[in-house]
Design brief:
The strands form 8 sheets. This protein has an 8-stranded mixed beta sheet. 34% of the residues lie in helices and 28% in strands. The protein starts with a strand and ends with a helix. The chain is globular and about 85 Å long. The chain contains 19 helices and 34 strands.
RNA sequence: GCCGGAUUAGCUCAGUGGUAGAGCAACUGAUUUGUAAUCAGUAGGCCGCAAGUUCGAAUCUUGCAUCCGGCACCA
């Protein structure tokens, strides 16, 4: 008599070998299960469960369950598309965060009007409640089958599957797709909680050199409520869009005649400088020395540095009389020029050279995005010139600085990746071995856990990448630290060692924020424009209720200004509700409301952006509070 | 760079071949107001740019530019 073991360790005798869903019924498992883990491996509910197997059911709400639903949804999408658009080839259709997509090969692209039609057909397929069945095929049969159906991409994919792996296909009605599974027992269980969201071009196997494909994205959830919540959350995220807030808060604008460059308006520039000065104060504590280097260099420098060979396609280059000039895409070669002035002793190392360096990169037109991805940007850059035995210590110190800064800026969590040698690179494998080893050692000694990001290093060296998570869960790569043995060699930088010999320094390229433009975009979206007081471009608006309190309002305003608080005064002939609404919409953190009562008693009523209540304080107290709270960390 | 979509007043958007519209903002006046929109009036447009079709184009066609969503690339 066969048996199975449930998660709690109990052994259940069965009359005969049963399928997953039959066992679920027998054990009165919850109704919302989508698959079954057999000895820890996810499988179909419609498969037979072997004797003495350990059985755990997967519910639709849990991570694995959602993945199965989403993957099912991708199959239903593919079936719907093939029914509506015959001769469309299927390629890949994975589950992704919040949903799924499917890439199709088709001559005519989909249009937005197609989505509702396809979605309608998907619901029909769900309502057909088709059984979903798994079949194991031989490689030859599978290739033959897909070829006969005109599915060239599927056939090609099968031929790249390792020989020791079995070929499984899933069938629902007439639709058959290659897939490892698991899947639901039938299409009906998918339910209604899905929606097609966008269309896009893509490339076969993600490579721009390959065939162009048409991608359809969708979102899919365990319940309709979850779908509704997700769509609502997307709407909320849109309200944080830095491009929208940048306009409504009067921070910056962009225009056609200067594509990829930012026009900073007074308030935005205040924000920018506040952030820049914060960085300046932090690196000063770590013995950095700030410099300023040219933007424009002769081609010969870029040839020496290797940029001409490895980075030329991203550089702005032009000819002026007999000279070929390029705007710098990075600051490193310029910093080496300062390092090379005079003779450097080992005693001078480590030498930490910082610059808010303005760089230009000719980014692909399709990649530009608000102020987050521009062609003219400023890095919080620095290069640490040091001896090899100082690399580990410098890396640790940098990690401490970065932790502090991310914390201060409202990002307590970050993760680390180590990106190693890329295909297109300068230097020998020996040098790369050395650089990668030392970086692994350094990050471990800094006490940070990390993962490896293969092949993503800079052309001159491996790098640490620091990723932070914003308030709505998105992840951004900001900080970086790169170990470089190559640039000092190429640009002939040296120092005099203790024994009097000439040696090459190691260069650490490092940034905490990355680009100020991009980081400000992230900050705007992270806070939804509601900056902490120290960052807010306008910290306080003083608003009077009637003309009777205008003189007092002016007095309060002037006192705030005296203390260096960024203040505006609003004595317009408008109702206080109107003023409050307007300043709240432009995200001013504090409104000092003054009427005749406040004027008589030398008080202010403080209204915070976050709250509905007001605090009534004496003016002296209020000033003290604001000054305290507005202090830069 | 690739695939789609969009481009109309400062902003958000109507307007599918026949005299360019609304709300908000702006300006002017009235109102002196107590915690997220006081009322009335005025002004504001080469309908992204360029060609074409047509008696006639914001509207149809083509090209270009920019923006948006993805892809690819990436700070």
């Amino acid at each position: 008599m066969p048996s199975i073991i449930t998660a709690d360790g109990a052994v259940h005798q069965l009359p005969k070998q049963l399928k997953g869903y039959e066992i679920a019924k027998q054990l009165s498992a919850p109704k919302n299960i989508v698959a079954v883990k057999i000895n820890g491996i996810p499988g179909d509910l419609s498969g037979l469960v072997p004797d003495k197997a350990k059985v755990e059911f997967i519910q639709r709400e849990e991570f694995l369950g959602l993945e199965i639903l989403r993957h099912d949804c991708a199959h239903v999408l593919a079936q719907a598309v093939q029914e509506l658009f015959p001769r469309t080839q299927i390629t890949f259709g994975p589950a992704i965060e919040n949903g799924f997509y499917y890439d199709f090969a088709r001559d005519t692209p989909f249009t937005p009007e197609d989505l509702p039609k396809i979605e309608k057909r998907m619901h029909e397929i769900v309502n057909r409640n088709l059984p979903i069945t798994r079949h194991i095929w031989t490689r030859e049969h599978a290739i033959q089958f897909f070829k006969s159906k005109g599915e060239a991409f599927k056939a090609e994919h099968i031929s790249t599957i390792p020989a020791n792996e079995e070929i499984s296909v899933y069938q629902q009605g007439d639709f058959i797709d290659l897939c490892t599974g698991p899947h639901l027992p039938n299409t009906g269980q998918l339910g209604k909680a899905f929606k097609l969201t966008k269309i896009s071009g893509s490339y076969w196997r993600g490579d721009a050199k390959n065939a162009k494909l048409q991608r359809i994205y969708g979102t899919c959830w365990a319940t309709e409520q979850q779908l509704k919540d997700y769509l609502h959350q997307q709407e909320e995220a849109e309200k944080r869009d830095h491009r929208r807030l940048g306009r409504t808060m009067g921070l910056f604008h962009l225009q056609e005649e200067a594509v990829g460059s930012v026009f900073w308006h007074p308030k935005g520039w205040t924000l920018y400088r506040t952030l820049e000065n914060y960085v300046r104060s932090q690196i000063a504590h770590h013995d950095y020395r700030e410099v300023r280097t040219p933007l424009l260099f002769d081609k010969s420098l870029w040839e020496k540095s290797g940029h001409w060979e490895k980075y030329r396609k991203d550089m702005f280059v032009f000819q002026e009389e007999e000279q070929i000039l390029a705007l710098k895409p990075m600051n490193c070669p310029a910093h080496v020029q300062i390092f090379k002035q005079g003779i450097t002793s080992y005693r001078d190392l480590p030498l930490r050279m910082a610059e808010f360096g303005c760089c230009h990169r000719n980014e692909a037109s399709g990649s530009l995005h608000g102020i987050m991805r521009v062609r003219s940007f400023t890095q919080d850059d620095a290069h640490i010139f040091c001896r090899e035995d100082q690399v580990v210590g410098e890396t640790i110190a940098f990690c401490r600085l970065l932790e502090k800064m991310y914390h201060d800026l409202g990002f307590p969590e970050f993760t680390v990746k180590l990106a190693d040698r890329p295909a297109l690179r300068a230097g020998t494998d020996d040098v790369w071995d050395k650089a990668e080893n030392i970086l692994h050692e350094a990050v471990k000694k800094a006490g940070l856990s990390y993962t490896v990001n293969p092949g993503e290093g800079a052309f001159y060296g491996p790098k640490l990448e620091f990723y932070l998570k914003d308030s709505i869960g998105r992840v951004w790569q900001c900080g970086t630290l790169q170990v470089d043995y190559i640039m000092p060699e190429r640009l002939d930088a040296s120092y005099i060692a203790e024994d009097g010999s000439k040696k090459r320094p190691v260069m650490l390229h490092r940034a905490v924020l990355g680009s100020l433009e991009r980081f400000l975009g992230i900050l705007i979206e992270h806070h939804g424009g509601r900056f902490p007081l120290w960052l807010a471009p306008v910290q306080v608006v003083v608003a009077n209720i009637t003309d009777a309190s205008a003189v007092y309002a002016k007095n309060v305003y002037e006192q705030l200004q005296q203390l260096g608080v960024r203040t505006e005064i609003d004595t317009r002939n408008e109702k206080i509700t109107y003023k409050i609404r307007e300043h709240s919409e432009s995200k001013v953190p504090l409104i000092f409301v003054v009427g005749t009562r406040e004027a008589e008693q030398q008080q202010v009523a403080i209204r915070r952006l976050s709250g509905k209540d007001q605090d009534i304080l004496s003016l002296a107290e209020a000033l003290k509070h604001v000054q305290q709270e507005a202090k830069q960390p």
